[in-house]
């Protein structure tokens, strides 16, 4: 996505996915947040 310069197109959805997974255990939410914030600042 970064290479194709389309990160902005997916920012709202990526942040929503992170927020929607807050109650999923085993570090899943934490990992998604970590990956998301590598591309999008908080």
Question: Could you list some keywords that capture this structure?
Answer:
42 residues; mainly alpha
Characterization of the model:
The chain is mainly α and 42 residues long. It has one domain. Helices cover 62% and strands 0% of the residues. The longest helix has 14 residues. The model has no long low-confidence stretch (mean pLDDT 91).
Concise overview:
With 42 residues, the chain is mainly alpha-helical. The protein has helices spanning 7-20, 28-39. The chain is elongated, with a radius of gyration of 11 Å.
Compile the SSE list and pairings:
Layout: H1 7-20, H2 28-39
- Number of DSSP helices? 2
Estimated radius of gyration: 11 Å
The total count of strands amounts to: 0
- How many structural units, i.e. domains? 1
Q: Runs with pLDDT <50, length 5+?
A: none
Task: Determine the N-to-C terminus distance.
Answer: 18 Å
Query: What percentage of the residues does DSSP assign to strands (E)?
Result: under 5%
Report the major sheet: none
How much is the average pLDDT? 91
- Principal-axis shape equals elongated
Tell me roughly what share of residues is in helical segments. Answer: 55-70%
Structural class: mainly alpha
